[in-house]
Amino acid sequence: MGASKDVAAKDGDSRLGRRALLIGGAAAAVGSAALARDELSRLWWRLPGVDKPRVAGAVDFRGARWVPASAANYRRADRPDDYPVDRVVVHVTQGGYASAVKVFQDPAHRAAAHYVVRRDGRITQLVRELDVAFHAGNRAYNERSVGIEHEGFVEDASSFTDAMYASSARLTAAICARYGMPVDREHIVGHVEVPGTDHTDPGRFWDWDRYLRLVRAVRGPSAA
């Protein structure tokens, strides 16, 4: 499975209580408005009643099918207001589409990607882009990225079909447009390139040149 099993405590913020006290106590005592603003900019979205309005079943990419992941496999957020998004992480499921969806709906799995792209090009969204999906095995990358799983196996070149490349390229182009990301290998990375990961996906058969060429063709002149 391309998405990494982040332990909830690893991705969560155990310092929330201490930070809240810091804002209310130290900031007030020292009179540091700048400190308070910085801390509150990271914490406001965690408080009740401050989420962006959400529509049940809504998707971020037109044509995607919505199948919600377990709430244990992502962290509710309000990106990009709380965490700027500047990466797309390409994964391979190491299995079929149905098995990927099944584990992402399993709260014990503790991992999920935002999207799964099937061999036939159909796209399923499991986590809203607003939220931090546990997919990269690295908290900072989880917070800054959108994770896209691709049905198949890293050592099976036939997994990566024309329909999959084309559909995934349209999805990545839309994500890059939404967050103002350049279409290059600094901003579109494989899971294997995430610091600290032990994964190898998307593997040697993933054609990066072809993929970026397709993304740029959709994105247009602003791709650079």
Automatic annotation (TrEMBL):
<protein>
    <recommendedName>
        <fullName>N-acetylmuramoyl-L-alanine amidase</fullName>
        <ecNumber>3.5.1.28</ecNumber>
    </recommendedName>
</protein>
<dbReference type="GO" id="GO:0071555">
    <property type="term" value="P:cell wall organization"/>
</dbReference>
<keyword id="KW-0961">Cell wall biogenesis/degradation</keyword>
<dbReference type="InterPro" id="IPR051206">
    <property type="entry name" value="NAMLAA_amidase_2"/>
</dbReference>
<dbReference type="GO" id="GO:0009254">
    <property type="term" value="P:peptidoglycan turnover"/>
</dbReference>
<dbReference type="GO" id="GO:0008745">
    <property type="term" value="F:N-acetylmuramoyl-L-alanine amidase activity"/>
</dbReference>
<keyword id="KW-0378">Hydrolase</keyword>
<dbReference type="Pfam" id="PF01510">
    <property type="entry name" value="Amidase_2"/>
</dbReference>
<dbReference type="InterPro" id="IPR002502">
    <property type="entry name" value="Amidase_domain"/>
</dbReference>
<feature type="domain" description="N-acetylmuramoyl-L-alanine amidase">
    <location>
        <begin position="74"/>
        <end position="203"/>
    </location>
</feature>
<dbReference type="InterPro" id="IPR036505">
    <property type="entry name" value="Amidase/PGRP_sf"/>
</dbReference>
<dbReference type="GO" id="GO:0009253">
    <property type="term" value="P:peptidoglycan catabolic process"/>
</dbReference>
